[in-house]
Amino acid sequence: MNLQLKTFAIALSAAVFAENAYADKAVAGKPTVQKENFGKTSDGEAVEIYTISNSNGLRARVMTWGAGLVDMLAPDREGTLADVTLGFDKLDGYLTRHPYFGTTTGRYANRIAKGAFTLDGKTYKLATNNGPNHLHGGLKGFDMRNWKGEAVASGVRFSYTSADGEEGYPGTLKVAITYTLTDKNELRLDYEATTDKPTVVNLTNHAYWNLAGAGAGDILEHELTLHAAKFTAVDDTSIPTGKIEAVAGGAMDFTTAKAVGKDFAKVAGGYDHNYVIEGAKAGALTPAAEVREPKSGRVMKVSTTEPGVQFYTGNYLNSSVIGKGGKAYQKHYGLCLETQHYPDSPNRPEFPTTTLRPGETFRSTTVYEFSAK
Q1: CA 131 → CA 93, 230, 347, 360, distances in Å?
Q2: Which of 166, 273, 338, 341 is catalytic?
Q3: Does the active-site annotation cover 186?
């Protein structure tokens, strides 16, 4: 074990996990998954929360509600832990409409223009819950459903069956998401879905990251690299125009690391754009992004099998959202890197397809790797 991991292990056992029976096991090299009750929904359904610890002591907590990521503890360059994802301390915060903190979004993540798409000659009408457009699966998407959870090796598998016609989508869709925490300090998300009728699918996790710690301020000094030389241009309702434009050294260019806030004033309203991942190939893990927080030294690398990543800077957060530790989440207090297919793909045949048919299996993987330097 190198010096950094030794320091990290000492910090874990002495400061953070002292009250938890499984902590010493995790630090000693025995990864564990622990299940607890997190509360109940308004309908009386039990919501479970799972704590996953890898052999280095990293910890993630995930819940059945929205198949969501609740906490992610990662060390800084001194081995000091912080929870680096926004959310709530208690279940109640997640049960009412919130900014999708850490949850799975679907059946179609991101936007569909005017809440409608045509598949095999039939037009399907969806809720328009984002101005004139459909967003993140509708009024009650996957983020507001209670999934079934089960512990698996080094992680948790969540499953949910979306009924034919739910939120206007065709087909009974069976979905599974597996979170695992590897000994390489990677949080891995594996998605699968099957359908009994032709449908559209686009799944992502909507974590808000702040590598200084949840509620520790804005993310404008975070240094970001996006492995993307192009992005999908959008209209004034954030729907793709069909043009794929080069970032070409302007405000949209993160091909080399720069502070998120460096060109912020040049981007009306802040970043909320889908970037086209360079070299993306179906089924192959490809680097998408790297984020570094200068003061703590925390680094997060993102790889995915998806063709795009939506970079969003928490533009609609405001101090009315009270998060972990009673802290108000203000504008730009977190950034999202939502790995995905492109927005409005069902209406854009030139984009990579999001159509899923009977007999096919949708598969997608995203990996978040944590380190410090």
Answers
A1: 24, 26, 18, 33
A2: 338
A3: no
- What is the Cα–Cα distance from 25 to 211, expressed in whole angstroms? 26
Closest CA to 85 of 108, 112, 55, 62: 62
Quickly list H helices, the chain.
3-11, 23-27, 92-95
Count other Cβ atoms within 10 Å, centred on residue 193.
23
**pLDDT tens readout for residues 14-39:** 333 333 333 333 344 556 899 999 99
For residues 29 and 16, give the distance between their C-alpha atoms in angstroms, rounded to a whole number. Answer: 17
Q: Which of 354, 364, 274 is nearest to 310 (CA)?
A: 274
Out of 134, 206, 227, 273, which one is annotated catalytic?
206
State the DSSP string of 319-363. Answer: TT-B-GGG-B--TTS-BEEEEESPTTGGG-TTSPP-EE-TT--EE
pLDDT at 31: 61
Answer yes or no: are the C-beta atoms of 64 and 158 closer than 8 Å: yes
Q: What's the pTM value of the predicted model, to 2 decimals?
A: 0.91
Q: Is 369 a catalytic residue?
A: no
Lookup: tokens for 37: 């009750």
Instruction: Give the three-state DSSP class for 358.
Output: coil
**pLDDT at 56 (0 to 100):** 85
